[in-house]
């Protein structure tokens, strides 16, 4: 750090006054007392926890990072700044992902806290930048750093896990997520962090200079208002689109916990629900049938069902083409008993499925009389790149067969289901999600849940969906924002941290 040890600096830019010049009590606590910074880090963790299921106070996410940013940018050392991010992460992820514990034990706790590494890296990166630039410049790049690290940990490496990305906290605020059709969920995270950074600047200015600078909260309010106004305008089109839509599809989404005679059970239920009504598309959960393709008897029964009932049937099947090697497939049988396509799950669950399931490589789009049907499977709904790729391949509707573990509990199911409306808004495609124990739902292109079956409920959702053709800005170009953030972050950190260390090592050698 320009020849100084971290302990010799205050992580403040050179143009700012020394801390001892501040004489108000709160500033002394903030800048000089470690326990007060720890309190701020814990406060951010609590606000983040409250922003997600089961509490769902998503509006708190717009201020949740302010305490952590204030603590990080006032701390005297890189080590402490890194520790503050780690404290927030450990509390936030350990509590929000506590359902990993009964399934994986101690390993589950460790897996859940892999994301803590990225939060600690975020605060460490900010501190390094604050040591080199003016504090205001550091706050400007804060949303870039956050989005870069969130995007990387969610979609870019082998342990990628998108749950609890900051943008997902807004799932209960339908108006605020409409902007995802332009920027995607990572763009929404970017915007939320902008408001947090502006409010953190307001607090820091008050504490450092005893100045009441109102421009930053005003700008934060304007940004929030623009997002809100955009959502209101978009939602005003809902009624118009419903009136002008003629090509509607009847769907029947099943939620039944799997049994040993699952095929018999689902055929019986489908016969009952289609008697006299005949939905055009029935959706069963993931892996609800064993060997639907390789077992000739099972396949014949499915072909007979779709032929006699004149329906499309989407279902999940587990196949074993080789001993101890499995395929997680989604199949669609057509009204004439034919098989329009099969989709191999492309992103198996790490440490649960990756050990024995062979991942697929092709995008899942099946042709039907009502247009191309896009397929994602369960866990894959958490990855916006998969939804985007599927729609770019021509899908007019999205279907997500899902199978989750009962003993993970209600919170896990609610957390997973809360992601689904984002895929609908990003792509402006209706989504039919069939889950074995919950939460099954039908979501319209605006993220509105038309109908759903909660955790452990049993039954069938009967409703209509409307295919969509046009591609959103996000589907066409939306990944440019997180990719830019990642490149910017890596370039800045490489230029201001790695390169100087290499040059110093070269000269010392």
Low-confidence stretches: 1-24
Tally of individual helices: 18
As for the number of domains, it is: 2
Secondary-structure class: alpha/beta
Largest sheet: 7 strands, mixed
Shape: elongated
Through-space gap between termini: 19 Å
Radius of gyration: 25 Å
What is the mean predicted local confidence, pLDDT? 86
- Total E-strand runs: 13
- Estimate the strand proportion: 5-15%
Query: What percent of the residues sit in helical stretches (DSSP H or I)?
Result: 40-55%
Quaternary status: single chain
Structure characteristics:
single chain, 509 residues, alpha/beta, Nitrilase/N-carbamoyl-D-aminoacid amidohydrolase, 2 domains, seven-stranded mixed sheet, six-stranded mixed sheet, 13 strands, disordered N terminus
Offer a quick outline of the entry.
With 509 residues, this protein is α/β, with parallel strands linked by helices.
Describe this structure in words.
This protein is α/β, with parallel strands linked by helices. It has two domains: 6-236 and 480-508, no CATH class; 246-477, Nitrilase/N-carbamoyl-D-aminoacid amidohydrolase (4-Layer Sandwich). Helices cover 49% and strands 14% of the residues. The protein contains 18 helices and 13 strands. Strands 1, 2, 3, 4, 5, 6 and 13 form a seven-stranded mixed β-sheet that branches. A six-stranded mixed β-sheet has the order 7-8-9-10-11-12, with helices on one face. The radius of gyration is 25 Å and the shape is elongated.
SSE layout and pairings?
Blueprint: H1 25-32, H2 34-51, H3 66-72, H4 78-96, H5 100-104, H6 106-112, H7 114-132, H8 135-155, H9 180-209, H10 215-235, H11 238-244, E1 249-255, H12 262-274, E2 281-283, E3 289-290, H13 296-309, E4 312-322, E5 325-333, E6 341-344, E7 364-366, E8 373-375, H14 384-392, E9 397-402, H15 410-417, H16 420-427, E10 431-435, E11 440-443, E12 449-453, E13 459-465, H17 473-477, H18 480-508
Parallel strand pairs: 1-2, 2-4, 3-4, 8-9, 9-10
Antiparallel strand pairs: 1-13, 4-5, 5-6, 7-8, 10-11, 11-12
């Amino acid at each position: 750090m320009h020849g100084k040890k971290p302990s010799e600096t205050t992580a403040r830019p050179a143009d700012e006054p020394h801390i001892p010049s501040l004489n108000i009590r709160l500033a002394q606590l903030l800048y000089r007392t470690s326990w007060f910074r720890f309190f701020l880090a814990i406060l951010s963790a609590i606000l983040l926890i409250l922003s997600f299921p089961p509490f769902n106070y998503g509006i708190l996410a717009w201020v949740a990072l302010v305490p952590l940013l204030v603590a990080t940018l006032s701390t005297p050392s890189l080590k402490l700044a890194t520790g503050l991010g780690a404290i927030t992460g450990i509390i936030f992820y350990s509590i929000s992902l506590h359902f990993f514990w009964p399934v994986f034990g101690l390993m589950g706790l460790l897996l859940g806290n892999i994301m803590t590494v990225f939060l600690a890296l975020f605060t460490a990166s900010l501190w390094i930048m604050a040591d080199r630039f003016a504090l205001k410049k550091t706050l400007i790049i804060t949303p870039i750093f956050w989005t870069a690290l969130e995007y990387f940990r969610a979609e870019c490496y082998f342990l990628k896990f998108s749950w609890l990305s900051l943008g997902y906290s807004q799932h209960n605020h339908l108006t605020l997520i409409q902007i995802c059709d332009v920027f995607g969920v990572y763009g929404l995270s970017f915007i939320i962090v902008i408001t947090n950074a502006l409010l953190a600047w307001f607090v820091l200015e008050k504490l450092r200079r005893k100045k009441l600078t109102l421009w930053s909260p005003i700008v934060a309010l304007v940004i929030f208002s623009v997002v809100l106004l955009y959502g209101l305008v978009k939602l005003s089109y809902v009624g118009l689109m419903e009136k002008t839509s003629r090509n509607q599809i009847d769907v029947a989404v099943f939620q039944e916990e799997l049994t040993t005679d699952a095929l018999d059970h689902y055929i019986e239920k489908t016969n009952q629900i289609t008697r006299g009504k005949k939905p055009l598309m029935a959706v069963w959960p993931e892996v609800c049938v064993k060997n639907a393709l390789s077992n000739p008897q099972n396949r014949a029964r499915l072909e007979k069902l779709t032929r006699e009932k004149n329906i499309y049937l989407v279902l999940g099947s587990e196949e074993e083409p080789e001993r101890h090697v499995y395929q997680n497939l989604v199949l669609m049988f057509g009204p004439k008993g034919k098989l329009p396509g099969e989709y191999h799950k492309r992103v198996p669950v790490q440490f649960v499925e990756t050990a024995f399931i062979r991942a697929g490589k092709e995008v899942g789009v099946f042709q039907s009389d009502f247009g191309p049907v896009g397929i994602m499977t369960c866990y894959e709904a958490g990855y916006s790149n998969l939804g985007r790729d599927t729609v770019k391949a021509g899908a007019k509707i999205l279907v997500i067969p899902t199978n989750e573990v009962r003993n993970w509990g209600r919170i896990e199911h609610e957390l997973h289901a809360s992601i689904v409306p984002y895929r609908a808004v990003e792509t402006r495609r209706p989504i039919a999600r069939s889950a074995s124990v919950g939460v099954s739902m039908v979501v319209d292109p605006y993220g509105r849940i038309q109908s759903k079956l909660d955790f452990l409920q049993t039954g069938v959702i009967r409703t209509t969906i409307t295919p969509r053709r046009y591609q959103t800005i996000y589907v066409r170009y939306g990944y440019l924002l997180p990719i830019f953030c990642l490149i910017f972050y890596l370039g800045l950190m490489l230029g201001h941290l790695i390169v100087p260390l290499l040059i110093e090592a070269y000269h010392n050698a």
